[in-house]
Design brief:
This protein is α/β, with parallel strands linked by helices and 166 residues long. The chain has a single domain, classed as Rossmann fold. 45% of the residues lie in helices and 21% in strands. A 5-stranded parallel β-sheet has the order 3-2-1-4-5, with helices on both faces. The longest helix is centred in the middle third of the chain and has 17 residues.
Length: 166
């Protein structure tokens, strides 16, 4: 464990997947404090509200003593600086993620020269999972149990049920 280092793991987590949890678990082992930052997601149309996403993430990080969950809206730089974080954790699933994440890391380095971006890859069985695909599978009536925690599966199926009747 790296002494005294706070890291942030930002995302919209709409919904949080087993891939996210795998990344979170491994990042929690590397740093003294990990803040999971649930972004409002201005640039994305989310299925779950910020409060719903916060609630799901908070429920799932309970077993981790050094992980907290915070909501955020705005420039991530402001959050990172305000919380004294020195690391941003980002996930890479495939080569297609790399280009975007590489550009983002460069921009973040420009905005926060004292903050490092650490890339982690999910375990093999999680590399193909994305929140977007999980939402689509659930919406189309497919099986999602292999991709999300049972709590999230229940919330997602409830949400899809409401969406179908709305």
């Amino acid at each position: 464990m790296t002494a005294g280092i706070t890291a942030v793991y930002p995302g919209t987590f709409d919904p949080i997947t087993l891939g996210h949890l795998d990344m979170l678990r491994r990042a929690a082992q590397l740093f003294d404090h990990l803040i999971v930052v649930v972004a409002a997601g201005h640039h994305k149309k989310t299925m779950f509200t910020l409060d719903e996403r916060m609630e799901m993430v908070q429920s799932l990080v309970m077993p981790f003593g050094n992980v907290s969950v915070q909501p955020f809206s705005g420039l991530m730089r402001d959050f990172v600086v305000a919380h004294g974080a020195k690391v941003m954790v980002r996930g890479l699933r495939a080569v297609t993620d790399f280009d975007y994440e590489f550009q983002l890391a460069g921009m973040n380095r420009s905005l926060m020269p004292d903050v490092e971006t650490v890339f982690l890859t999910p375990g093999d069985k999680y590399q193909f999972i994305s929140s977007t695909l999980v939402r689509e599978i659930a919406t189309l009536g497919g099986e999602i149990d292999a991709f999300v925690d049972p709590l999230v599966a229940q919330r997602l199926l409830e949400k899809v049920g409401r969406l179908k009747t709305a």
